[in-house]
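[INFO] parsing input record for EVE domain-containing protein
[DEBUG] input buffer:
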Amino acid sequence: MAARALSAESLGAWLLKARGDAPETQAHVRSAFAHVETRCVRPSYRTDLVVAGQPALLWVSGKAPGLPSGIYAHGRTTGGAEGGVIPIELAPLTPPLLRSELLGHPVLGAMEVLRMPAGSNPSYVTREQLAELSQMCPDLDA
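[DEBUG] output buffer:
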């Protein structure tokens, strides 16, 4: 069996994805994520690792006008994943951490979402990557 990319020990935060051109995503950004309580994900070994209280980040993908790719929200899981859904609470990152800021960074450039944009949902950031993101954005706490 191949080694898994993620374990409970290496997890810094879940990185949940949303399409920037989706009307739902645009509404969530406008409302500062006020009514976001869950995110749909693909069930896998990763979702078996989700428990309440883990850090979570929301990645908006694509090239929607006025909504460039990047991390737009942060928060916590509020329970375990069930049936392809992760319960979460989110707050906006102001300003968001844009893909363009992360690409050339010596640690953050290796984030899974940057290496494999069409990869798994949920994706993740490592503990080291979360610490680096926290240096860039005071809203995040590693």
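[INFO] Residues 127-136 form the longest helix (10 residues).
[INFO] shutting down worker
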